[in-house]
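Box 4.2: Ligand-aware structure prediction
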Amino acid sequence: MNDETKRNGPTNKGLLPGILKGLATTAKTATRTTHTHEYPDVAPDLPPRSRGVIALLEENCTSCMLCARECPDWCIYIDSHKETVPATTEGGRDRQRNVLDNFSIDFSLCMYCGICIEVCPFDALFWSPQFEYAETDIRDLLHDKERLGGWMETVPPPPALDERAAEPAEVAAANKPARMPRGRAT
Ligand code: SF4
Ligand code: SF4
C-alpha cells in the first residue's frame, strides 16, 4: 500500500456510485427518441426540394449555352450543331435550329449551387432529390445527356400554387374578354 492510498483510503470506495451513475445515464439515453436514420436500410425522408442531382429535359433545351456560361465551376459541357428546317408554307423561308449532340455535367466538380437551373430560360433543368449515385471511379460522375435525362422521372411535381396567390398573368390574359371592334360597342 503506497502513501497516497494510506492517506485517501481504498480507491474502490467511490467506484459503486460511479457505476450507478453510468448505468442511470445509459438507462436515460436508451429511452430517448433516436435522431439517426438506419441508412441504407431505412431511406431518409428528404424534403421534395432537396438538391440531389440535376435532371435534363432534353426536348426543352435549345443549346443556348447560358447554363454552361454561368456555371461557376465550368462543369457543364454542351455540343450542338445547326440543322435546316425546310419552310412549311409556300414562299416561306427555311429555318435554322440547334440540335443537341452532347450535354454533360461533371458532378465531381459541381457544387450544387443551382445557378444553371435558375438561369435556364426554357425550363430544361430541374433538381431531383435522388442522391444515390456515388461511384468508385471519379470519372463516372460525368453524367451524359442520357443519364441526366433519366433523372427526370425522379423529379417531384411542382408544389401546388398558394390558393391566395394572384392569378398567373397567362391565365388572366387568356380569360380576358375579347375587345369589341370599334363602333360596335353597345
Ligand atoms: S449546380 Fe452550380 S456548379 Fe453545379 S452545374 Fe449547376 S451551375 Fe454548375
Ligand atoms: S440554359 Fe437551358 S436551354 Fe440553354 S443550354 Fe442550358 S439547359 Fe439548354
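In the box above, the bound molecule is iron/sulfur cluster. The longest helix spans residues 15-30.
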